[in-house]
Each structure stands twice: as structure tokens, then as C-alpha cells.
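**Folding the chain**
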Amino acid sequence: MRHSKTLKNTKTSLITTAAGSAVISCVIVVSILLLLGFLVAKIDATDVILSAMSTFALCIGAFSGGYISGKRRKRNGLVLGILCGIFIFLVIIVMSHLFSRAAESFSMPVKLILTLLFAGIGGVVGVNSKNGRY
């Protein structure tokens, strides 16, 4: 009986850790997009540059979300990173559908792959990084 309670708490903890890291990751993505938006306001940018900037912000945010979730749990970095990437991608789908009606765009599968890839790498790096305390 104790084993099933421990397993249930572990699954819940994995989901809450990944969801919390995804929220932090979305804040990081928005912050990077605001900074890049300020830069774009100073120069004239094409649609290709804007798409590259948004993809860059997404990759950095996904990596940081995976890194944070892997660092918190100290194990299962790849699973946590991919779970965090799924949460991030769901937020992207909802926000793009609400604000720009672009949820059906061609680039969504590419963004899904990039989000899962960078979040998974971030989770692995987070688990394998040394503790900052000496």
C-alpha cells in the first residue's frame, strides 16, 4: 500500500514540476520576445527575421524550462523536459489561437519538434549539471 502512494505522489510531482517549469519558461519566452520586439522597433525587419526571432525565443525558453525541471527533480531529465515541452507547446497553441488564429499554420509541427527537442536537452543538462553549492 505504501508503494502505490509513493508512486502516485511521484507522478503528481513530475506533472507539477513540469507544469511549474513550463510557466517559468513561458515567462522567459515572453521576456525574450519583448526584448527582441524592442530591437525590431529600432530596425526594419522582414517576416523571415521575425519568424527566426520567435523561434529563437521559443528554443531558449524550452531549454530553460527543461533545465529548471531537471534541476529541481535531479532525475528523469529527458522525461521531465519532454513533459515540460508538451506543456509549453499547449500554451503556444492556446495563445496563438486566441490572439492570432494561427494555430493551424504550417510551422506548428516544426515548433513542436523544436520545443520537445530543446526542452528534452535542457532536462538532461539540468539533471547532469553540478550543484551550485560547494
Q: What stands out?
A: The chain has a mean pLDDT of 82.
